[in-house]
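Complex 483.
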Amino acid sequence: MLLYNSLTRKREEFVPREAGKVSMYTCGPTVYHFAHIGNLRTYIMEDVLEKYLSYSGYEVNRVMNITDVGHLSSDGDTGEDKMLKGAKREHKTVLEIAKYYTDAFFSDCDKLNIKVPGTVQPATGCIAEFIELVEGLLNKGYAYIAGGNVYFDTSKLEEYYVFNDFTEEDLEVGVREGVEGDENKKNKADFVLWFTKSKFDDQELKWDSPWGVGYPGWHIECSGISMKYLGEYLDIHCGGIDNQFPHHTNEIAQSEAYIGHKWCNYWFHVYHLNTNSGKMSKSSGEFLTVSLLESKGYNPLAYRYFCLQSHYRKSLVFSYENLDNATTAYNKLVVRLAQLDENDGELDEAAFSEGKKKFTDALDNDLNTSLAVTALYDVLKLKTNGKTKLALIADFDRVLSIGLVEAAAKVRAEKRAEEEKKNAENAYDMSDPFVAEIVGLIEQRKQAKKDKNYAEADRIREYLASKNVTLIDTPQGTTFKIG
Ligand code: AMP
Ligand code: ZN
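Predicted structure with adenosine monophosphate bound:
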């Protein structure tokens, strides 16, 4: 499989360190608010990567953190802890909002068919590990204490800007523009490993440390949690493109300084979802969440389908018009699949392999989900039977996870029930007063149920039973049988 590696800036053959096994780390959400659908684009594409690796036969061990402390409003180590800001906004404690938004995140993941990684670890559960890392970095001379905080000394590295060609000057004029400098830093790129001296002394969560009571920096969390569960060698590290700098740059700096060798081989970054007016935001404009889409009548899986239609290394523009188009295409696809008959023929091995090859070729080519979706449509054009086509769709959906098999089965069942209802009605002469009475009573019973008048509904059923009429309830309505 070819995968673009942000570290080498090339597409490379993916070869894990240990044959057949992949260790994968994902930067998890900062749980101070709901995830917006941009954040979720990143988690959808990472989910596709994990599932495709499993589909290809690898045993994937995936770990994700939950950032519940230390992520400040500015990447320049200044500003308030986002968690504290969220807690103040909602007049709750930090732990209360962490729990609430962690649950909300996993509920969104569930709606989008995003599998929960094998290990999920909140940062507040690994403070001892972070302290050990910081101590190690101090002992090795990669860190220093200034003004009460512990900083990583980027001047000790041969190469710090591993993902781009930034210089100290870029930091001065560009990246950190508008952020007031931290006087304690020896070099502009240095970053905090452990805070004890925050401008905000109302920081809620604090722990004892060799450097005083305080809390960890955001970057150290991911190094600590990754190494705790996956050891000193990592195959794939993923996140959104904005995580490249400074977050992932700092993770690499501190991890490799601590372990003394290369840490992670492949870096997978998902480009942003933007709106027509620019960057997606939690604080300005319409805050786009999965629940908001649902409240407008959209199926979350149509949003997943929308994401799959474009490559993860291209920015994607969200608009309701684009989502409408994806929804129409998704629904049409489901209707076409529902027309296939699973009992039509035996599995046609040759056609199955032909269809599958297009799909794996697409995903082997740097996870090209847009071509994988094309491969899905190509299945419909294959000269083979319904059984084989449906088997291919089910196979692809192990990775794409857009619920095609279930959705098609539902449409099929609805159609069948509707036909059964029609057949039952056609079987009797509607001009017969007895049949007309039955149909009328079925309507009355429906209304009684709606009004929660179950006694009346039961009375009608029993009355009809006494006349030898059996009612048959289906999700699409009630039919009957006489005799
Ligand atoms: P956060 O909860 O802010 O820590 O972000 C969670 C994940 O979403 C990170 O991997 C970010 O890189 C990613 N992310 C943030 N904004 C966007 C966006 N507009 N589109 C796609 N991914 C994003
Ligand atoms: Zn991270």
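The chain is about 45% helix and 15% strand.
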